[in-house]
Write a structure and sequence with these properties.
Layout (H helix, E strand, L loop, with lengths): L1 E7 L6 H14 L4 E4 L2 E3 L3 E3 L5 E3 H10 L10 E6 L3 E6 L2 E6 L7 H17 L3 E9 L13 H7 L3 E6 L5 H11 L2 H4 L2 E9 L7 H11 L3 E6 L25 H17 L5 H8 L3
Parallel strand pairs: 1-9, 1-10, 2-9, 3-6, 10-11, 11-12
Antiparallel strand pairs: 4-5, 6-7, 7-8
Helix pairs in contact: 1-2, 1-8, 5-7
Length: 281
């Protein structure tokens, strides 16, 4: 199965938008493409044509692929409520409410992820997977079903994204790499620096050092853009998001904006490298 997974060094690093651009890229090459995010934590959702509820970003990524949203693109949707509780939406349908005294049924959730990926893979030439939060949340590693555990399930190569706008991007990328077990580090095939302001050439010494330390190439430095998908992560709520499109006419505007962003990204991202990583180049 040809696939590629986008993970972040932190929450809000820009995984969703980069995954959407990859969806658009592979679709523009005439491939059947599908997005996949095993677990999403968001109150911002979308109801598919057959009545299932998924994260809004997977709906937009589906449209970037030129296909309709499907429940299997996001089999687990967690909708926070109250101080520490959340509703679990499984395979598009409400399952249960969970909290400190009522933990999530993890085996059931893992089984749903495997089932959903099988559904998506069967209808696709390539799957663009997206992680959730940071890739090396070591306090949650035994419960992770959204990041490296999904990459292993799908046998997917990983592209790691760091957000330079918040600072500390080299430490974030290298720290994430080091915190992962050696067998998981091998899955990381490239890194991307996102939301840079100014002349990217000043990053060259840092990029060269990071490539030397990790043995992993940089696939590009993306400039800061006002384009955003609707907010899912709480870290994005305070960020200047520009114009955020909804469905209907807003969906058309969003697709036009994504097309412009994808076109401009060709100057900054090594899509040939990303194609080779995904097994399509």
């Amino acid at each position: 199965m040809n696939n590629i997974m986008v993970l972040g060094a932190t929450s809000g690093a820009g995984k969703t938008t980069i995954a959407a651009m990859l969806c658009r890229h592979f679709a523009s090459r005439g491939m059947r493409v599908s997005p996949f995010k095993s677990q999403n934590l968001s109150l911002n959702s979308y109801v598919t044509a057959t009545g299932e509820e998924i994260g809004i970003s997977q709906a937009y990524q589906a449209w970037a692929c030129g296909t309709e949203p499907h429940w299997a693109m996001n089999p687990i949707l967690l909708k926070p409520h109250g101080a520490r509780g959340m509703q679990v939406v499984l395979k598009g349908r409400p399952l249960t409410n969970v909290g400190p005294d009522n933990p999530a049924p993890r085996e059931m959730l893992r089984d749903a992820v495997v089932e959903a990926y099988g559904v998506i893979a069967a209808r696709s030439d390539i799957v663009v997977l997206e992680g959730a939060g940071g890739a090396a949340e070591i306090n949650l590693s035994d419960r992770d079903i959204a990041n490296m555990a999904t990459a292993e399930m799908a046998d997917a190569p990983v592209v790691l994204v760091g957000d330079i706008d918040r600072g500390g991007v080299f430490a974030g990328l290298y720290g994430t790499f080091l915190l992962l077990p050696p067998e998981r580090r091998k899955r990381i095939k490239a890194f991307i620096i996102n939301r840079f302001r100014g002349d990217a050439s000043i990053l060259a010494p840092g990029i060269e050092k990071l490539e030397e330390l990790t043995g992993i190439p940089c696939a590009g430095v993306l400039p800061l853009s006002r384009f955003r998908l609707p907010a899912e992560d709480s870290l994005d709520l305070g960020r200047d998001r520009g114009t955020v499109a909804g469905t209907g006419d807003g969906q058309v505007a969003w697709m036009e904006s994504l097309e412009q962003l994808y076109t401009s990204s060709k100057e900054h991202l090594d899509y040939a490298l990303l194609e080779r990583i995904a097994g399509t180049g």
